[in-house]
Structure formats: structure tokens, C-alpha cells
Amino acid sequence: MKIYISNKIRRVYFYDDFVTFFGDLPITKQNLGLSHTVFCICNGINDFDQIAHSLIDKFALKSDLETVKRMIHQCTIADTSIEHAFVLNSNEANNNLIFNGIVGKRYPDVLHIELTSQCNFMCSHCYKNALYVGESVCYKWLSEKIYDRLKQQIPIIHLTGGEPTLHKDFSKIVDLFANDFDLQLTTNGSRITTYSMEVFKKFQAIDISLYGLSGNEYKVNTGSAESYNLVMSGCRELKAADINFGVTLVINAQNWTQLENYVEYAIRVGAKSISFALPMNSGRLINSNSDKWFLSPETKKNIYKCYRSVSKKYKDDIIVREWTRSAYSNMWNSYPSDDSLRCGAGRTNWWMSEQKQFRPCSFLPNEYICLDYDEWIKYITKESNIDWKNSRKLLEVFASKNDLKITDICPIFRKE
Residue 182's CB: how many other CB atoms inside 10 A? Predict the structure, then answer.
């Protein structure tokens, strides 16, 4: 008897002793035996006998072949939570299945690369404190240390900044990663028209940050009034080239009453989706007392009501991304509680700065966790560990020095 991954599953991701099935909704299971079984199936080992022999050899099992085969059946076809992921008929199998990661290793699903700390905007809420003049990671290092080392292990590369399109080798970097990774881009959109649309066709996802609905608003929020028209032109060129893109607005006390206007703007310029985000207490906001950015609980409730209203009203015109990101949260709620981040930062997501430093999340300071390249490679290949509890204590010290609580830096630290 043979077993296959169902055509209801489009991708499988392995992380440590977890396996995640991506179908209509992602489902994560923690079971080293299941992970190894699925890894065998993904690699074309479909016969129950062969899989059982592999498990016996891998884990030095004392059980006989028939017992191990029953165990395989119990954790796959007989498990009602994931039975849809497996089929016994090859005609119902996904013959184009994508799978990433390695059983027993910690390769992330997404590596976010901050190509540069340089930006042509000067936003008051910038998490990175980006400047007009900044440092950039060099192409040669990316080629040798990221592309050559990780191209078979990490499926998604997300290019960001600063403003990533200011990197002198931006097009060359896109070409480097495009063939072996799914590419994502976050940009302020002001320099899209300076590149050929062929560059942006190589991205699977493009997100443009919005900073206003007029030149005056862009001047106040970014220091660049002319960028409003540049962003609009860039969006229209993407649309004309049939390139899908989304837009994101960071909400503050002044723009939240304009959510519907932003949705209408996004529709006009051709965006396929719009997301709304709250500012994080990092970068330029870490010591700011600006009433513009820090919202009261009551205001947040009103924002959520407005979000629900526009989501319903414009559902046939544009995708309004989930406010709570509940689908993403549910993906990782089966991970153990070890003081690591439940959102997946430091597991499925890592951020690399232009200084080649690796952090679980771009919004968290270096005082929390900051690894150099060799340290990070040792962690993701499971040659070393992170003391998450001690890192949390270090973050608490950092927060206290800045008259903050760690929940002010990131709400994920709230106890549930």
C-alpha cells in the first residue's frame, strides 16, 4: 500500500519536529515521527513498508514492521485533524507539491532582508530610524552567504529597508534570488518608475506603504511632497503591467477617520489588497510622546469598528486584510510555551539587517536577541540554542531604561 500528499495541500513546511500543511487553512502538528513520514512522502518514498523501514532505521525502533506501519496509518490517514492531507490513490495526489525546511532543523519560512538603512523619506514613526544616507549590505555577501547557503532551505525572501530600491544593486539582487525563492518586496513606492516593470514581475508579493492622500500630507509625514505623485504613478505603472500589489497604512490619531478614503484610493490606483497596521514602539518612536501615534484603547475600538465597516462595504472591490491576523496566529498556536514568540518571530521568520545582524523581529531592539551570521547559522541548524527567558529579561531592562513595559514594545508579550 502507498500513501501520498493530497491535492488539497499546496505546500508542506518542516521546522524542527513540527510539520505544517498549507491547504485552505494551515495546520501544524508536533510529531517527529509524523514529520519524518511526511518528509519521506514528499521525497517520493510512498510505500508503507519503505517508510516504516526508514523510521525504524532513523529512530532505532525496536517495534516490528507491521506495528510501525500501523503507527504510520494512525498519525496520517486515521488522524481526523489532518486526514484530508493524505490519500492512498495517486490520482488524488498533488504532483506539484512544494515543500521546504528540514526535519530536525530550524530553517525559517521567511527571511526578511533589510538591504539598506538609507531612505528618501524621513517618517516620524520609522521603526528603523532610516536616514537619507545609510549603510547597505553588499551583493557579493548576499550571493555567498544567503543565496548559496540557503537556496534549498528557505522558501521566501522578503526585501525591505530603509527603502530597498535605493540599493545600488537592487535589480541585480532581485535577479539573484528570483529563480530559487519566492520574492516579496516592501517599498514606499516613490522609485518604482525608475525601474523596468520586468524587475517587479519577478516578485510574488509587493506591498507599498502609504503616507497620505495628498502632497501636503506626504510632506508632513515623510518630508517629501512630490512623492505623493511619484507613488501614484508607480502604482498605475504596476497596474498597467498587470503586476499585483497591495498597500499598507500605519494608522495614527489623524488618519484613522480616513480609512474609507484610503480604501477608495487603493482601488483607484489598482491595488489588489489593503492592510492596516498600528505603529510599534521602536526606532524613532521609542522615546516619543507623540499623541499622533499612540492611540487610546477607546480609539482602537473605534478604528476596529471602522475597519469592519469598510471591509464589508468594499469586499467585492478589494481585499481588506485581516486586522487581527488571526489566520497567521492560528498557524503557530500549537508551538510549546518556552518564552519564544508565539507569532513565529525567531522561528518561521527572521530579520537580517544591512549590518548582517539577525533578529527575530524588526521591531524588537538588539538588546533582545541579535546574532551574527555564524551564530544564526548554528541556531537554525540546531547546533546551538537561544535562552529565550534570559532574552526576555534583557528586553525588560531595555524597556525599563526607556520608561516602558515590554508590552509597550510588542503586545505579543502579554500573558494570556
Answer: 17
> What pLDDT does residue 288 have?
66
Q: Dihedral (C-alpha) 129, 409, 319, 194: value to the nearest 10 degrees?
A: 10
375 exposed, middle or buried (CB, 10 Å; 0-12, 13-18, 19+)? middle
Terminal Cα-to-Cα distance of the chain (whole angstroms) = 45
Q: Which three cell numbers stand for residue 110?
A: 521567511
- Dihedral sign computed on CA atoms, order 340, 279, 350, 152: positive
**C-alpha cell belonging to residue 124:** 516620524
Tens-digit pLDDT profile for residues 138-154: 999 999 999 999 988 99
* Amino acid 137: pLDDT: 97
Other CB atoms within 10 Å distance of the CB of residue 170: 24
Torsion over CA: 381, 383, 388, 391 (sign): negative
Rounded to two decimals, the pTM is: 0.90
- Residue given cell 469598528 in the structure block: 305
CA distances from 35 to 99, 332, 339, 385 (A): 12, 16, 24, 21
Helix (H) or strand (E) holding 234: helix 227-240
DSSP E strands in 145-303: the ranges are 156-160, 182-187, 205-210, 246-250, 273-277
Is the pLDDT at 326 greater than 70, yes or no?
Answer: no
Render the burial of 271-294: b for 16+ CB within 10 Å, e for the rest: bbbbbbeebbbbbbbbeeeeeebb
Q: What are phi and psi of 6, to 5 degrees?
A: -65, 155
